[in-house]
Input
Amino acid sequence: MSTPSTIGGRELLAALKATAGGDGPPLLVPVGKPPAAYLRPVPTRPDRINRNDVRCLTEWRNKFLPAFLTEFEATEARTSRWLTEHVGPNPGKILFMVEEPNGNAFAYMGLDMIDWERGYGEADAIVRGGEAPKGVMTSALQTLLNWAQSALGLKHLGVRVRSNNTAVDFYKKCGFVETHRVSLRRIDEPGMIRYVEDPNAREAHGFALVYMDYHGPRKT
Output
């Protein structure tokens, strides 16, 4: 049975996605005090798609292609369809642009794989495409994770990342701890390379999928 907090979190996530890009002022999650950046929900309704968001998402995904489990040449049309057909309808997924106080976007990050019954979710699509002040990406991700816990009621948070991705060290710095690794098998398709989990396969080209759990900000 769902608890009141999980019901509230689910409704909040749906409301954020439904109102993103509307006529009213956007809901912004401040990063730091005073804010060094803001998290802004990415609009996913077809009539509210933000063309600058789409451009940034497309360019930055292509820039960091080897970081993803699916490798393909993104286009703005394909990104728009992904937002409207995949992100929007998914009740366990949300994406944010990370913006400077002047509105300049330099990154995006989100939550995915949310299981409202278990109170579990994963950090997802953490990409910095532009220049950012030192430490702001770490603060932004920790802000997102704290918001997931306090506003959405999630109790357990994780992340999955390719072992050959330098982001592994970034996640450790943010408070994630590795739990295990699963070998990946490469699948070549027309216009795309996919990597799928296969415990019986040898690590594809020497890397695996790293599972990590969030233990809170790392003490220094």
The CA atoms of residues 93 and 112 lie 4 Å apart. Confidence is low (pLDDT under 50) at residues 1-6.
